[in-house]
Amino acid sequence: MCPHSYERVMEYESSYNSLGNMDKHMYMKFTLALMLALASVVALSKPYTMDNTDSVVLEDKETNRKYEVFIRIPEGYDQAKKYPVVYLTDAWYRFPIVAAAVQIPILTKSMESFIVVGISKDVNEDRDDARVRDFTPTTPTGWKKKSGEADTYHSFVSGVLFDYIDRSYSTDPKNRTYVGGSLGGLWGAYVLFKYPETFNNYILASPALWFDNHFIFGLEKQFIEKARNSSINVYLSVGELEVIKSKDFEINMVKDAERLYDVLNNKQIGGLRVKNVVVDSANHDVSFPTSSIMGLFWLFGGGS
User: Fold this and answer.
1) Domain extents in the chain
2) Which of 276, 198, 279 is closest to 234 using CA atoms?
3) What's the pTM value of the predicted model, to 2 decimals?
4) Tally of CA atoms within 13 A in the half-sphere of 60 that contains its CB
């Protein structure tokens, strides 16, 4: 029972001795009922949990890193059915947003049912340090944080993680989607360019394409050769206000997304479908929820 509950009971007890025997009997019954009611209220207070979710820690034997993974299965999950799987990074933030936002569209059948898998950081590491290391493909000159392990992270995701999810749930291995934002969007673009077969669909929200002097665009020719006969869907999205200017540099994520769209819209890649969307009045801090849910609606619903 919380301290305020005890205080209310003590207020009643302070006047107890001034009552007659009959009044005392009624008073005691009332006090007992009050205490039971307050105890019931306190007992109902428990941490919020999302329905149909699991969590697991998976170890990457090559690096000895232990990644926490969150999984949400759709309402009415049927083991006899094969489900698409949506994988997303930065799960500490993005998993609750995506897993919650898709519930109503799936229930109303506005969107196809799928499993959501959120990959969080190594359980023993700082969140920001881990994501900079895992999501970046290079180490820029003068860069102080550890970086450049995008390939190592890809090996974990495409190996250990895919294997666990496909063994543990009823999945369609031919229908995998990636959702990533900011540096996670950069990692998604890197995987698309270097390992395009990893996912069938890519939702790249505000991708940090500026990293290392736009290194990602140096992979354009390699990507065109690898993806020439691929059937891939790419949803690009960035906030209208995602432009940072200073005396020393300028980051214009809107123009960077347009540049990536032009690369992906190359006629030499016959099986690639791409869409680029600018979220009105949104900056880098708030664009992801809209980008992710609209991207998923484009892929799994009636979005055009």
Assistant:
1) 3-44, 53-300
2) 276
3) 0.84
4) 22
> In angstroms, rounded to a whole number, what is the distance separating the alpha carbons of residues 10 and 21?
19
Cα distance between residue 9 and residue 2, in whole Å: 11
DSSP H helical segments within 53-110, as ranges? 91-101, 103-107
Q: Which residues pair with 232 in a beta bridge?
A: 272
Residue 3, CA distances (Å) to 8, 10, 44, 159, 250 in order = 9, 11, 16, 52, 54
- Give the Cα separation of 192 and 236 in Å (integer): 12
Q: At 145, phi and psi to the nearest 5?
A: -75, 150
Distances in Å between the Cα of 289 and the Cα atoms of 94, 103, 105, 122 are 8, 14, 15, 24
**CATH fold of the domain at 53-300:** Rossmann fold (3.40.50)
Query: What does the pLDDT look like over 238-270, one tens digit per residue?
Result: 999 999 888 788 899 999 999 999 999 876 777
pLDDT in tens, 211-228: 999 999 999 988 988 888
**Cα 39 to the center of its chain, rounded Å:** 37
